Amino acid sequence: xxxxxxxxxxxxxxxxxxVTYQNPAMSPETVQNQSYNLTGTVLNVTGRxxxxxxxxxxxxxxxxxxxxTKGIQATLTLIPGSNLVSTTGVNQYGSDTETATLIYQPRxxxxxxxxxxxxxxVSPYTVNQHIFQLTAGVLHVEDVQHLxxxxxxxxxxxxxxxxxxxxFV
Length: 169
What we know:
Blueprint: E1 18-23, E2 29-31, E3 35-43, E4 51-55, E5 58-60, E6 64-66, E7 71-77, E8 81-91, E9 94-104, E10 114-119, E11 135-139, E12 150-151, E13 154-155, E14 161-162, E15 167-168
Parallel strand pairs: 2-9
Antiparallel strand pairs: 1-3, 3-7, 4-5, 4-8, 6-7, 8-9, 10-11, 11-15, 12-13, 14-15
C-alpha cells in the first residue's frame, strides 16, 4: 500500500512597512516658501488607513496615498523656523517612521527708502527769508546714519531724524 501526500509550503512574507521621502531629499532642508509639497513612498501597507502623518505634532489629514504606486503626497503649510514632519506606516509585522526637519525662512523683502517733503508741500516753492525749516517724511530707513542730506549739491549735516515718526527736520 502506498499513499502520497503533497505539501506545498508557501513562506509568508513578513515585511514591515518602509517609509521614505523623496521630497525632502535631505533633512534638515531650508526652504523659502510657506507651502511645501512633501512626496514619498510607504511600502507594505494595505491602504491609507495604515498611514499617519504629523506636522509639528499635529495630525495631517489631507494627504493622499496611491496604493498602486505606494506614493504619498501632502501639501504642508509651514511656520517660520523649524518644522518637524513625520510619516508612519503600520502593518501586522511592525511599523516604520520617516521624520524630516523643514526650516522655513521667508524671503525678506527690503523696501527701498521713500522720501516725501511735507514743508514745502509743493515744488517749486518761493521763500523771502534766508532761513527755512525743511521737513520731510522718510520711510524704510533704520536710523540717521543711513541718511545723507545735500543742499545745493553740498553735504549738510545740520538735520535730525526721528525714527519713531520717520520725520526729517
